[in-house]
From TrEMBL:
One Pfam family it belongs to: GCE_fung
Chain positions covered by the region annotation Disordered: 50-86
Official protein name in the record: 4-O-methyl-glucuronoyl methylesterase-like domain-containing protein
Keywords: Hydrolase, Serine esterase, Signal
Gene source species: Algoriphagus halophilus
MF annotations from Gene Ontology: carboxylic ester hydrolase activity
SUPFAM superfamilies: alpha/beta-Hydrolases
């Protein structure tokens, strides 16, 4: 009898689990279908019938993405950030202010989309506040919700979720680093790394941390583009061809968090940094370019669409980014570079986006390609930093002083634009210590 009950309960749990799995598979299928439909609609609006397929991220697939450096560079030169569109040279800081506008316009119209002129306001509410222990540091922890005014279109509700903590011991307002964070369900929690977490490291430094949840206000798929903040602004309609993509919308949320920090007496809003990994590394780059108030950036393994040269034929390609699984990160116009145009037709490249962060300090992080894989293209991210360096120099700052790829665990950390490839995989984890050391000279003065 006992065995029967155990068997029965195993069966029931198994059945429950498979229902959950089925439901989430169904939800995933329906998101993929709606995304494909919206993607198709954008292609029709662009007059595109067919796109070139991207290579596979699976290194043993027959159409695996290239990982042979000798085939990576189908171009002679990258576009020069210090030459105006009309061919004139950018010689001074004043020239750069004008050139910035040209570059920004290209990125807005062709890659990330335009920030809408009118975006509803946000009211922040602290929904939970308590003293908490993070490792050995006592901190003031807060959970906040940013309520977006939806009176223009009440059918769509948008709320921004954020958590943050600042050290209790601090004497005045503290610098803070905000991360675009994933929220992992309890069943999928990542194992705690050895040693202090990044939050504990920041708090021990006397700084605060914040975790902004991008998907709370804009879904990470094409199916969600008629909802979230993009959908609210468009009153539930499809995007126009130069409308903002999800990366820019996530960046908008980070700016609204910064608005909140300006009202929080525990935070020094002039010393707030933005960090993200992978797709959130791309979002951190976009956020920093759009928001001059961010004091420092930490872009980890951001790869294609982030700090990797679009033109490089190595790892992930524009064709992957423009597909129905990822096009939502960008403006619909970007799709055309996967057919009929090619990445070589882009009027700009990623180093010019990175240069738009100058003169503010930026840390580019990568994993070891032997561990992380080649999809992210560590060399491509390094080359982006090299090619953005002349802009830092023009503005009186220090870019990378070598174009020799350093490989693993050799940080190029002396300038204001720095690069370090750690020996781990697809994580920023091991680079937090180095980032904090780098950031000290800007945040602790
Ligand atoms: C995919 C995608 C990348 C992205 C990554 C991530 O691999 O192709 O562009 O950076 O997911 O966000 O984890």
């Amino acid at each position: 009898m006992r065995n029967f009950i155990i068997l029965l309960s195993c069966f029931c749990i198994g059945a429950q689990l498979s229902t959950v799995a089925q439901q989430s598979q169904q939800a995933r299928d329906s998101i993929a279908k709606l995304s494909r439909e919206d993607h198709q609609l954008m292609m029709e609006k662009l007059g595109i019938e067919e796109l070139r397929p991207g290579p596979s991220g699976n290194p043993s697939a027959p159409n695996a993405a290239n990982s042979d450096e000798s085939k990576a560079t189908p171009y002679k030169d990258l576009p020069n950030p210090l030459i105006f569109d009309n061919g004139a040279k950018v010689n001074s800081k004043k020239d750069w202010e004008k050139r910035k506008k040209e570059l920004k316009e290209h990125f807005d119209s062709e890659v990330y989309g335009r920030m809408p002129k009118h975006i509803p306001g946000v009211t922040w509410e602290i929904v939970e506040e308590k003293d908490s222990l993070f490792g050995e540091v006592h901190a003031r922890y807060k959970k906040l919700i940013g309520h977006v005014d939806n009176s223009s279109y009440p059918e769509i509700q948008v709320n921004i979720e954020m958590r943050m903590a600042t050290p209790i011991e601090s004497k005045g307002p503290v610098p803070l680093i905000m991360q675009f964070s994933w929220i992992w369900p309890a069943s999928m929690q990542r194992p705690k790394p050895e040693g202090p977490t990044w939050q504990e490291q920041l708090l021990s430094e006397g700084w605060g941390f914040a975790m902004l949840i991008p998907t709370s206000f804009q879904a990470d798929n094409g199916a969600g583009l008629r909802e979230g903040i993009i959908g609210l602004v468009n009153k539930g309609q499809a995007r126009k061809l130069d409308d903002w993509g999800t990366l820019k919308a996530w960046g908008w949320g980070a700016s609204r968090a910064l608005d909140y920090f300006e009202t929080d007496p525990l935070v020094n809003a002039k010393k707030v940094g933005i960090e993200g990994l992978s797709r959130y590394g791309k979002a951190a780059l976009v956020a920093m370019v759009d928001e001059p108030r961010f004091a420092i950036g930490f872009f980890a393994s951001s790869g294609a669409g982030g700090t990797k040269i679009f033109r490089r034929v190595y790892g992930e390609q524009v064709e992957n980014l423009a597909s129905s699984g990822e096009y939502h990160w960008f403006t619909p116009n970007f799709i055309k570079y996967a057919g009929p145009l090619t990445p070589l037709d882009l009027p700009i490249d990623a180093h010019e986006m990175l240069a738009l962060c100058a003169p503010r300090p930026v840390f580019i992080s990568s994993g070891d390609p032997n561990v992380e894989g080649h999809w992210i293209d560590a060399v491509g991210m390094f080359k982006t930093a090299v090619a953005a360096s002349p802009v830092y120099e023009l503005l009186g700052k220090k870019g990378l002083d070598t174009d020799q790829y350093p490989g693993t665990n050799v940080g190029l950390l002396n300038g204001d634009l720095v690069y370090r490839q750690h020996d781990g995989g697809h994580t920023e984890g091991p680079n937090w210590t180095y980032f904090i050391e780098f950031a000290r000279k800007y945040l602790n003065d």
